[in-house]
């Protein structure tokens, strides 16, 4: 079948397959298809059925946003809704996020979207960001900008070289696995930031005995050290929900724990 949809969806599927490092045989076996049929689909000689598109997308671990794009390219309606976070449909999600954020007090936590924009935060995180210029926290702020901008937490980070390498590596991996333009633009922006003034180059090497790359911050109350975890929602069927995550910060030493609890006691 030589249609406008066939070649478009085929090229997209080929791009995702190559991005995942799979051969046509690998993907065909996983999806219960034949190499010949998959080759026809990728070359635009065959139009895949709706279920075939979804099955291939599942085995390629393609984000829901891009699965909708594949369906549209193949001539089908999108399968997943994209609900605004402030909509009635997402009320239960907002409630769950609020429980996660407030339940993590007195330690910082933020809810972020797929390009690291902060969509919600708890009081402890707001206190931590109180040392950041307002222009970096407008409309919630962006985690990558807050960490890497020389006027942001970078200027107070005691192990900035470590944190920068880890953050950029994390973001670059996202760019490579999704190909999303907005993530690539964010990476190009933050990777081009200059180092903060008075950066000590001796603070760069990663501790080979450590288990994580910590975030060490100098605050007016004293130095703090954090490790972080990221939680996502299981089995999402909505694009917005699939791209939502909660990053929680935990104290790495007694001093940080004590300072955060003391701050919480003052509120």
Features:
12 helices, Lambda_DNA-bd_dom_sf, Cro/C1-type_HTH, MLTR_LBD, alpha+beta, Helix-turn-helix transcriptional regulator, 267 residues, 434 Repressor (Amino-terminal Domain), Beta-Lactamase
Structure report:
With 267 residues, this protein is an alpha+beta fold. It folds into 2 domains: 5-73, lambda repressor-like DNA-binding domains (434 Repressor (Amino-terminal Domain), Orthogonal Bundle), CATH 1.10.260.40; 88-266, Beta-Lactamase (2-Layer Sandwich). Helix content is 46%, strand content 12%. The chain has 12 helices and 5 strands. It has helices at 5-19, 24-31, 35-42, 50-59, 64-73, 91-103, 123-128, 143-148, 160-178, 181-191, 239-242, 254-266; strands at 109-112, 118-121, 215-219, 222-232, 245-251. The protein has a 5-stranded antiparallel beta sheet with strand order 2-1-5-4-3. A hairpin with a 5-residue loop joins strand 1 (109-112) and strand 2 (118-121). Helix 1 runs antiparallel to helix 5 (64-73), helix 2 crosses helix 3 (35-42) and helix 9 (160-178) packs antiparallel against helix 10. The chain is elongated. The termini are far apart.
């Amino acid at each position: 079948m030589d249609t406008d949809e066939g070649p478009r969806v085929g090229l997209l599927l080929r791009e995702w397959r190559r991005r995942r490092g799979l051969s046509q045989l690998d993907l065909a076996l996983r999806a219960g298809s034949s190499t010949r049929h998959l080759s026809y689909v990728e070359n635009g000689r065959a139009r895949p059925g709706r279920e075939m598109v979804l099955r291939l997308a599942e085995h390629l671990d393609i984000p829901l946003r891009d699965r909708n794009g594949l369906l549209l390219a193949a001539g089908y309606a999108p399968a997943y809704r994209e609900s605004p976070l402030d909509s009635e449909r997402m009320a239960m999600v907002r409630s769950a996020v609020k429980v996660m954020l407030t339940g993590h007090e007195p330690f910082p936590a933020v809810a972020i979207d797929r390009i690291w924009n902060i969509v919600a935060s708890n009081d402890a995180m707001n206190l931590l960001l109180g040392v950041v210029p307002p222009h970096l926290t407008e409309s919630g702020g962006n985690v990558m900008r807050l960490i890497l901008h020389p006027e942001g937490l970078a200027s107070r980070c005691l192990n900035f070289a470590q944190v920068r390498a880890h953050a950029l590596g994390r973001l670059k991996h996202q760019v490579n696995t999704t190909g999303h333009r907005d993530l690539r633009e964010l990476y190009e922006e933050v990777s081009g930031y200059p180092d903060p003034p008075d950066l000590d180059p001796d603070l760069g090497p990663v501790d080979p005995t450590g288990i994580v790359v910590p975030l060490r911050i100098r605050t007016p109350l004293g130095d703090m050290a954090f490790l972080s975890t990221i939680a996502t929602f299981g089995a999402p069927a909505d694009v917005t929900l699939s791209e939502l995550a909660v990053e929680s910060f935990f104290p790495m030493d007694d001093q940080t724990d004590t300072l955060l609890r003391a701050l919480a006691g003052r509120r």
